[in-house]
Amino acid sequence: MPAAAAPAGTAVPASPPPPFAARAASVEGSPVREILALTERPGIISFAGGLPAPELFDTEGLRAAYDAAFAASARRALQYSTTEGAPELRAAVAARTTARGLPTGADDVVMTSGSQQALTLITTALIEPGDVVLVENPTYLAALQCFRLAGARVVAVPCDGEGIVPEALAELVARQRPKLLYTVPTFQNPTGRTLPAARRTAVARIAARLGLWLVEDDPYGELRYEGADVPWLAAHPGAEDRTALLGSFSKIMAPGLRLGWLRAPAALRRAAVVAKQAADLHTSTVDQLAAAHYLATADLDAHIATVRAAYRERRDALQVALSRTLPADCEWNLPEGGMFVWARLPEDHDASDLLKTAVTHGVAFVPGAPFHATAPDPRTLRLSFTTHTPPEITEGVARLGRALTEYGTG
Ligand code: PMP
């Protein structure tokens, strides 16, 4: 018999809804997102966000590409499409990958909603709660979130100024039996470091010998300002059958497109496609077709060259300003590309405390501690140099210098 409806105005006895999943309760929101909110105040010169420079977006070219996608077939552009992605875009990504030294067919590529989704799909395909995932220390924050949400036990591989130390990796793999190693080997976020070719060879060998998946995340590789390209980890002997290479248009076209991809061996790709069906069926058709039109008709490489030239200038302005301003016992690196400089404050300094003072001086950065899976170094910080002009960068570092003086005497 149907239950009688409670008369209007009568309180219905209520039990609380069941609790959230443990994973949702245990993984915190990104502290960097909170800092970004703080730094959006007017007048702040922010080295905090890892954003591409919006004034460099090819807005006209992209608008024309969307027009062309609609003109060619508006109905197709607005319709559901395949989970793997638009064939012409997969082919174009494969051709670019092949041209950069890794022979790739269109079928090897799955288009994703940002490379962030590629990471989630690989994690869904490979990781059971309790599995060990190895990461660089420090590493990309949203990768840590992704692995922790999956219930992984995240273990940091010892790194030095050049990235992963192969001997330490071999020892950890033998001891911990991890499922995968996640690495950003080129112009890493947050450190800007690039893993040298000889270490890539060693990492691929260790993965092959000891049995390990490799996830090579490469959103920054085309933003090189000096030096020679280093072949992808995926291109090294031993890595072929066990590497998921993640790519993205975010840093070379625009992040709002949310277009990334994964290139992986067939079985892993199939598992990722099933995971993607459950996540979002497919990546936006219209965005994919617009990107495909852009690649077919505009000159992405010329655009990347423009972006590179601007970012090189900004990186150099940051370097000059840092060496003029920071005390001698501060350390920082000179990345050959990407978007980030990694710095270390003098002894007894805490970058999170300094940030509070810095914001009052009108400058911001991201403290390095949250990027560490273990053993956070409170003296570290990340400076992104992409979104300000050289004069703004010079002024921002002058403010940082004043904040450091106040912090030191405070
Ligand atoms: N991996 C790394 C290392 C990143 O720094 C970022 C973005 N900052 C991503 C992945 C995500 O990029 P996308 O916009 O392609 O999702």
Secondary-structure map:
Blueprint: H1 22-26, H2 31-39, E1 45-46, H3 59-78, H4 87-99, E2 109-113, H5 114-126, E3 132-136, H6 141-149, E4 153-157, E5 159-160, E6 163-164, H7 166-176, E7 180-183, H8 197-210, E8 213-217, E9 243-248, E10 259-263, H9 266-280, H10 285-297, H11 300-325, E11 331-332, E12 340-344, H12 351-360, E13 363-364, E14 366-367, E15 380-384, H13 390-409
Parallel strand pairs: 1-13, 3-4, 3-7, 7-8, 8-9
Antiparallel strand pairs: 2-10, 5-6, 9-10, 11-12, 12-15, 14-15
Helix pairs in contact: 3-10, 5-6, 5-9, 7-8, 11-13, 12-13
Q: From the 3D structure, determine the CATH topology of the largest domain.
A: Aspartate Aminotransferase, domain 2
**What is the residue-averaged pLDDT?**
94
Overall 3D form: globular
The level-1 CATH class of the largest domain: Alpha Beta
Secondary structure class reads: alpha/beta
CATH architecture name of the largest domain: 3-Layer(aba) Sandwich
Radius of gyration: 23 Å
Descriptive account of the structure:
This protein is α/β, with parallel strands linked by helices and 410 residues long. The protein folds into two domains: 22-50 and 302-409, Aspartate Aminotransferase, domain 1; 60-299, Aspartate Aminotransferase, domain 2. Helices cover 43% and strands 14% of the residues. The chain has 13 helices and 15 strands. A seven-stranded mixed beta sheet has the order 2-10-9-8-7-3-4, with helices on both faces. It has a four-stranded antiparallel beta sheet with strand order 11-12-15-14. A two-stranded parallel sheet has the order 1-13. Helix 5 packs across helix 9 (266-280), helix 7 packs parallel to helix 8 (197-210) and helix 11 (300-325) packs parallel to helix 13 (390-409). The structure holds 4'-deoxy-4'-aminopyridoxal-5'-phosphate. Residues 50, 114-116, 140, 184, 189, 217, 219, 248, 250, 255, 260 line the site of 4'-deoxy-4'-aminopyridoxal-5'-phosphate. 4'-deoxy-4'-aminopyridoxal-5'-phosphate (PMP) is lined by residues 50, 114-116, 140, 184, 189, 217, 219, 248, 250, 255, 260.
